[in-house]
Amino acid sequence: MTEIQTLLLVFNVTYRESGTQDSLDELLKLRYEYNHILGKQVSSLLSKFKQRNFEFCDKLDRLLSSQLKGLQAERAICKIHSTSEHIVTAPKKINDIYGILYTVVFLQIHCYRLRN
Could you give the number of structural domains in the chain? Predict the structure, then answer.
């Protein structure tokens, strides 16, 4: 790397002094090679950084929580029909209606067991 940097300085001086097309071509080739090497180094450092960030961050926790939220969203009851055939969308009212429904169902089961 330092060799290319010193060669770049030398070719820059050569081109300034001579101004020939050959020295410009050599300078451009060297700059292209230098930029290519720098690009590879930056790409390598970025991939290492991404890997470390993936390994040490709380990505697994966030992945699990997002999966659970997705499952809950699939099973969530967004709206129901009440006994008066109105659509209920408020979560509190939905919970109240289900509370009443389960109370009635369990009382019926209890009464059935008492009769038999």
Answer: 2
- Where in the sequence is the domain holding 57, given as residue range(s)? 1-76
**How many Å apart are CA 88 and CA 96, to the nearest integer?**
11
pLDDT above 80: residue 34: yes
Q: pTM for this one?
A: 0.43
Q: At what angle do helices 2-18 and 21-56 cross, to 10 degrees?
A: 150
Higher pLDDT, 100 or 71: 100
Q: In angstroms, rounded to a whole number, what is the distance separating the alpha carbons of residues 93 and 103?
A: 15
Place 59 in a pLDDT band, splitting at 50, 70 and 90: low
Regarding whether 92 and 50 lie in a shared domain, the answer is no
Give the angle subtended at the CA of 108 by the CAs of 103 and 109, to the nearest 5°.
100
Domain co-membership, 9 together with 48: yes
Q: Are 15 and 43 in the same domain?
A: yes
The burial of 71, by beta-carbon neighbours within 10 Å (0-12 exposed, 13-18 middle, 19 or more buried), is given as exposed
